[in-house]
Design brief:
With 322 residues, the chain is an alpha/beta fold. The chain folds into 2 domains: 2-173, Thiolase/Chalcone synthase (Peroxisomal Thiolase, Chain A, domain 1, 3-Layer(aba) Sandwich); 179-321, Thiolase/Chalcone synthase (Peroxisomal Thiolase, Chain A, domain 1, 3-Layer(aba) Sandwich), CATH 3.40.47. Helices cover 33% and strands 27% of the residues. The protein has a 5-stranded mixed beta sheet with strand order 1-7-6-4-5, with helices on both faces. It has a 4-stranded mixed beta sheet with strand order 8-13-12-11, with helices on both faces. Strand 12 (303-310) and strand 13 (314-321) form a beta hairpin. Helix 7 packs parallel to helix 8 (253-263). The protein starts with a strand and ends with a strand. It binds oxa(dethia)-CoA. Oxa(dethia)-CoA binds next to helix 2, helix 6, helix 7 and strand 12.
């Protein structure tokens, strides 16, 4: 028996306003046809007045706490992944902590853009298994549409806003019982210029806008994701057939298809929400996870692989027994 991080509940939140491709095409030089064919995106949610990364994270966290059947005051660790914090400091995690009444525990943000939730899971799992905390909220929350250049059609049609959260608890258990099995994380800072924001507190003193060389990112994403998924399988001695569900970062339907094909995973095992939510960066994996838990596809006992790739580059994968 060893300490394991067991997932007790999931939750998510979306801004009130949904924006279709057709609505976007009335303001940006694009078309529903181009967006659907190149990305699979049909809809995204865009944060409005009063909706921020923190408010979405709080709503997602409350849903996850309710699903877990526990009080916010029992949480002693909050790790929040975001690239769009409410303030440069303090961490958005501390705003969530105060809202759910978990004051006094550990709370901080991690910045790994679209892979942020995977990084947050890896950090939280390590802290739970070493006894630094007992109950964690791991959150991915973004208002990415606030850092888009709405004059740049190559990026502004791709992203949306939202949040997802999970509750993890340290419990004594065995390898074949519920809990996180392994997390593999990577970064390669040589590719900064392929996906970045052209501003920041220490350089321009502004927030900046997202810049991406999409075609190059696409190529790296397929290779890196297939490699890290292979690493997780090698580490555990499992094969693609053993996996019940893959919950990938939702950037592009074509990346999901290409990665699944490379691994020999049937498309029906891949949870897809990119059509409804677009790319919500760090929120996309927990949003998709919560969607598939709530609609009954992901059930207790299932083996679930989470994976993501984003700016940095950063990428990673995590295997969980539900
Ligand atoms: O979340 C982090 C990870 N991010 C990703 O994984 C994103 C990875 N990249 C992608 O998903 C794709 O590369 C994109 C969806 C961004 C672009 O698709 P693509 O098939 O690589 O298109 P492209 O960039 O090669 O552009 C093809 C054409 C260009 O026109 P020309 O030069 O061929 O005449 C673009 O100007 O499509 C044009 N285009 C558009 N047309 C209509 C670019 N954006 C748009 C648009 N509407 N919104």
């Amino acid at each position: 028996m060893t300490l394991r991080s067991v997932l007790l509940g999931t939750g998510s939140a979306l801004p009130r306003r949904a924006v279709s491709n057709a609505e976007l095409a009335s303001q940006v030089d694009t078309s529903d046809e181009w967006i659907v064919e190149r990305t699979g995106i049909r809809n995204r949610h865009i944060a409005g007045e009063g909706e921020t990364t923190a408010t979405l994270a709080i709503d997602a966290s409350r849903a996850a706490l309710a699903a877990a059947g526990i009080e916010g005051s029992t949480i002693d660790l909050i790790v929040l992944a975001t690239a769009t914090p409410d303030q440069t400091f303090p961490a958005t995690a501390t705003i969530v902590q105060d809202a759910i009444g978990a004051n006094g525990g550990i709370a901080f943000d991690v910045a790994a853009v679209c892979s942020g939730f995977l990084y947050a899971m890896g950090v939280a799992d390590s802290m739970l298994r070493t006894g630094m905390a007992r109950r964690a909220l791991v959150i991915g929350s973004e208002t990415f549409t606030r850092i888009l250049d709405w004059e740049d059609r190559t990026t502004c049609v791709l992203f949306g806003d939202g949040a997802g959260a999970v509750v993890l608890e340290a419990r004594e258990g065995t390898e074949d019982g519920p809990g996180l099995i392994v997390t593999k994380l990577h970064a390669d800072g040589a590719h900064n210029e392929l996906l970045y924001v052209d501003g920041g507190p220490s350089t321009t003193g502004t927030v900046g806008h997202v810049r991406m060389r999409g075609r190059e990112v696409f190529r790296h994403a397929v290779v890196n994701l297939a490699t890290v998924l292979g690493e997780v399988l090698d580490h555990t001695g499992l094969t693609a057939e053993d996996i019940d569900w893959v919950v990938p970062h939702q950037a592009n339907q074509r990346i999901l298809d290409a990665t699944a094909k490379k691994l020999g995973l049937p498309p029906e095992k891949v949870v897809v929400t990119v059509d409804r939510h677009a790319n919500t960066s760090a929120a996309s994996v927990p949003l998709a996870l919560d969607t598939a838990v709530r609609d009954g596809r992901i059930k207790p006992g299932h083996l679930v692989m989470l994976e993501a790739m984003g700016g940095g580059f950063t990428w990673g994968a995590c295997l969980i027994r539900m």
